[in-house]
Amino acid sequence: MGHDLSVGRIKLDIPTTLAHLSTAVNVVVAVDALEPQFSHYALLKKQLSHYRALASEEGLTDLPALPAKSLKPGDDYAGSAKLLHLLAALGDAAPPAPDAPPPQSLAPGWSTP
User: Fold this and answer.
1) Strand (E) or helix (H) holding 16
2) What element of type H or E holds 32?
3) Are 93 and 110 in contact (CB under 8 A)?
4) Cα 56 to Cα 96: distance, rounded to the nearest angstrom
5) Which end of the chain has fewer surrounding CB within 10 Å, N or C?
6) Angle 89-99-94 (CA atoms, 0-180°, nearest 5)?
7) What are the φ/ψ torsions at residue 102 (nearest 5 degrees)?
8) Are 94 and 111 a contacting pair, CB within 8 Å?
9) Which pLDDT tens digit goes with each residue over 8-36?
10) pTM for this structure?
């Protein structure tokens, strides 16, 4: 499967690379120079870091069980506030206003960023 990307592959000469790294003044800079230098790679690294931070956040995904097989806007759900927090952390919903009361139902007014 291809996406017609015009990014050429660089063949990594491992012995030469290791020799260069072993004499590098700043190994972090030397390793960074080995990474792909296109913007999407940097974006992927940034998102990976973000998702790792979210994964380490205690209780972020601890939501109460659903009261039914599915929920519809306006249905009561004990985990509405925690769900909104999770969706905001993932970037899938706008964070609630600081002075807003915690939601008790899946309000149809939830907005996405």
Assistant:
1) helix 14-23
2) helix 27-34
3) yes
4) 22
5) N
6) 30
7) -65, 140
8) yes
9) 677 888 999 999 999 999 999 998 888 88
10) 0.56
In 3D space, the residue among 70, 74, 51 whose CA is nearest the CA of residue 61 turns out to be 51
Strands (E) across the chain are located at none
Q: Give the pLDDT confidence score for residue 29 in this predicted structure.
A: 93
At 90, give phi and psi (nearest 5°): -80, -15
Asked whether 113 and 88 are in contact (CB, 8 A), the reply is no
**How far is CA 91 from each of CA 41, 47, 67, 78, rounded to the nearest angstrom?**
20, 11, 25, 22
Cite the beta strand spans of 1-112 per DSSP E: none
Domain range list for the chain: 11-56, 59-113
CB 93 within 8 A of CB 113: yes
